[in-house]
Amino acid sequence: MRRITRKRYPCVVVRKMAVLPGMVIHFDINTPAGVKAVEKAMIKDRKLFAAAEKETPGGKAKSGRTGLFGFGCVCAIKQVAKLPGGVLRVLVEGEMRASLLEIEDDECLIAVAKEIVTPDDWYIGKTVCPVNPELTMDNEDARLKIMARINILKELLTTMLGYNPQIGKTLTKQFEEAQTLSELLDYVAMNVPMHFSDRQRLLGTETIEDRFLTLMTILQREVNILDIKTNIAKQIKERVDKNQKEYVLREQLRVIKEELGEGSTATEEEKYKEQVAKLKAKKEIKEKILKEIDRFSHLHDGSSEAEVSRGYIETLLALPWDRASSDNKDINRAERILDRDHYGLDKVKERMLEFLAVRNLTKKGDSPIICLVGPPGTGKTSIAKSVATALDKKYIRICLGGVRDEAEIRGHRRTYVGAMPGRIVTGLKNAGVKNPLMLLDEIDKMSNDFKGDPSAALLEVLDSEQNSRFSDHYVEIPVDLSEVLFIATANSAADIPRPLLDRMEVIEVSSYTENEKIHIAKEHLFPKQVKKHGLKKGQLVIADTVWPDIVSGYTKEAGVRGLERKISAICRRAARMIYQDGKSTVRVNRGNLYDFLGVRKYEQDKKSESDEVGIVRGLAWTSVGGDTLSIEVNVMPGKGDIMLTGQLGDVMKESAQAGMSYIRSIADERGIKADFFKKHDFHLHIPEGSVPKDGPSAGITMATALYSAITGKKARADVAMTGEVTLRGRVLPIGGLKEKILAAKNAGIKKVLVPKQNVKDIKELDEEITKGLDIVFVSCMDEVIKNAIREPSA
Predict the structure, then answer these.
(1) Torsions phi, psi of 190, nearest 5?
(2) Per-residue pLDDT tens for 139-148?
(3) CA pair distance 376, 368, nearest whole angstrom
(4) CA within 13 Å, CB half, 735
(5) Exposure check for the chain: N or C terminus, fewer CB within 10 A?
(6) How far apart are CA 570 and CA 540, in angstroms?
(7) 697 an active-site residue?
(8) For the whole model, what pTM was predicted?
(9) Active site residue 304
(10) Which DSSP symbol is given to 749?
């Protein structure tokens, strides 16, 4: 039960404050309505109603009755002081809880409130309750219940006092002086630190039971929070004490080293910070490095974590974030350097000069991403170094052959032992500038395994739209690769993953002609080897007539590596003759070439001396250049079987079968008897049986050889051909024409049959290659037979 009295009081609104009965507190009033309320209370009975203001989630107070809490406190004004600016400072003492029923707005706010008197309150230590004489403590259970609550409250407060001893004196005294349980609970709520909302909850409880349980819940929560804070503070203190001890010892050690002259005055952290101040980098990058330096300064010098942090900081400081070199803008000088260092490779040179021209016009220009594809030894790697020299760029070579781990490109995360940046970032670090020429050598030789696919990691590196913020797992800061000039090399574009190939501008570097090899040998390789072997100018002379023999008789390759080795062998022999035999000059001519290089290793595959039945000359592309193939067909009595020998691949076998089907389809119009194919077997063979052969480009050659053997008509010995054949006799285009045309020319062939759709490829060839050759474009087998088969004279 509770007794309720309804009254009207002048009302003041307080913010973030709950006034409890028995609480003495002061607050400032600066609103006209609040000042009027105080004045009215002072005139009447010095009673005020203090109501707390609610707040919205945004922090703004609500207005009207709904903006106030439903419970407040009737207070007695003890003192009023006037402050400057019309502000009143009011000292009040809370007397009684009251429920706010409504607010009247007159000259000031008037609160209509119900005073709440709790009849079930007990005077501590009394047998009869003075408020309600009908309630007695004769009941042992009731007495024990009250004492149990007081003991629980004491125990909880004792625990709290262990964390916050400052509140202990007043609370201990109040336990002895409190007359009622309600008074004791309110006093505890006043003096124990808690949030304003918790005090407001206690103010709104109408029964002793609810007030006790609410206070216990709040106190238990505060005890739990204090326990957690104490544990955290203890851990922090232990760590700080340890770090402080280490700091003092390090400082003592530093002073001792300075006294002994073994240490510098600047600490390692200070040196790093000085380097950061001098570093050319963006603000966010410097902030990241400084943050890492601060972390490093708190680590123990000898710990493994400090070593990892030191290596990371030094890597970040060594990277050329905004440091770039000045490119050469003299396009004529660049052209002279490229022509000086390399003979041929015109497409590569033109592309580099175009890039330089665009850069000079736009002042920036996107750096091209170029892939040079061609056989080994054709100068793909060395041209990249010449381009770097011509453009005055730093040169970095990254060999990707055999790389199969993605971390080689993107780096290892720092959580791993021995972590380091990837090859791209390491290359930038070694270059010292952010715009070097970076050669990705042997990009087609990468593989992948369970550790990831490095070619997938290169997709970001070689994408001009993405590489301005390349992510390296070790660095963890975006690295700008947009100004790096990437040049990749490969022997075969077919071995490069398609998405990666799509990001690069492919330039074919084809085989050298014999004339180009002679020029390269005389102008580049020979002077280089003479200098390398310590020979002086004029001590070794190689006659001009010897060079063709060296190129064709002792090497068989698309490039010039083997040729350089032969020149090196000549220089070694000459050096011995000069040093041991005392000769002043060594001359090499066709007569003594054998003494320097031994027996001639290769003979030119010359054309047949005479026309023959069933033997046709084909053209093939190999990794060391072009070659000619002599395709032979024999016809013998049998059941119509066809045998294919010479280690032919599946595609080549299918081409032979397609050619045979075409010959059978034209048997009637060519005068071949219908039962000829049932009574004879056919054996097609391509010499050099130990060498695997495949591809469709020998299709028309095999069909022509079959036609010659079946009809008994001779095939012309001075004709070679290449092209794919279909079942209906159409001739389809093929690749590798430059190498094939060179092979035909070297073999003494006069006429070459080429698919009509390859006209554009022939037009791109130099006149030096096509000179002296009759190139005939064919679109069907009828045209091939017309040019390749010698019809018997009537």
Answers:
(1) -70, -40
(2) 666 667 777 7
(3) 23
(4) 8
(5) C
(6) 9
(7) yes
(8) 0.59
(9) no
(10) -
